[in-house]
Amino acid sequence: MKVIENYFYTKSHEWIQLLEDGTALIGLSDYAQNELGDLVFVNLPEVGDDLIVGEMFADVESVKAVSDVFAPINGKVLEINEELLDAPQKINEDPYGAWFVKVEGDVKPETLLDATAYQEYLTELEA
């Protein structure tokens, strides 16, 4: 499974990319999209919605199941990736390019997994 070095992750398989302007992009990890299989639908929040750590903010539907996507940080949705609404398969094709939302918020890296810790977590799951 591909893990990007300078991203942060959660144990529920969301990733967070911190941007230079202080905002963050959030998406679903390669591991998650692989486990779900071919994605056929994605439901995203509205611009202006508040994200609360640990609460569902989106969901994805695959040929196997429907899965909730949880907020890894507190914040306000500044932008959604509308391209995913028409082409959810982009998450399968490029999980780290297919971000769900751009958020302005309170990013606390100490509450997240870095790439090394996430890779170790994935190794434990596959054992």
Structure in words:
This protein has helices at 30-36, 83-86, 90-93, 115-126, and strands at residues 8-9, 14-18, 23-28, 39-43, 50-51, 56-62, 66-70, 74-80, 101-106. The protein has a single domain (8-126), classed as RNA polymerase II/Efflux pump adaptor protein, barrel-sandwich hybrid domain (OB fold (Dihydrolipoamide Acetyltransferase, E2P)). A hairpin with a 4-residue loop joins strand 1 (8-9) and strand 2 (14-18). It is globular, with a radius of gyration of 13 Å. The two termini are 14 Å apart. With 127 residues, the protein is an alpha+beta fold. 35% of the residues are buried. The protein is built from 4 helices and 9 strands, in the order E-E-E-H-E-E-E-E-E-H-H-E-H.
